[in-house]
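lol ok so funny story. i was supposed to be doing the assay writeup but got distracted and ended up predicting the structure for this chain instead. priorities right. anyway since i did it might as well share w the group, maybe its usefull for someone
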Amino acid sequence: MIYLLAFISILLGAVAQYFLKMGMTNWALKGSVGEMLRLLFHNYYLWSGILCYGVSMLFWLYVLSRMELSKAYPMVSLGYVITLLIGYFLLNEPLSYPKVIGIVLIVAGVCFIARG
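and the output, tada:
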């Protein structure tokens, strides 16, 4: 169960990145601080990303209270894999062979650490 909660936390962090990317696409942060804040406060993608990060943190704190840090923290690297896949499938970002090899190495590393 704790591994599932860790995965949910990591997934929410990756989804937060997607929302933040969507929120900042075509947004130029120029002008006065007041103008930037006004624009940011009306950006629902940004608020969705912030909410995802907040919920992710709550799950992560629960995970840390019940799992060894040396096992929990390496699992965070799975967020790189999820974020790359979100970029590929939802943002039409390219997926190259070096990226695929990197994904395989990250997943293998997390599996080795989880078993140790």
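The chain has a mean pLDDT of 92. Residues 2-115 form one domain.
back to the writeup now i swear
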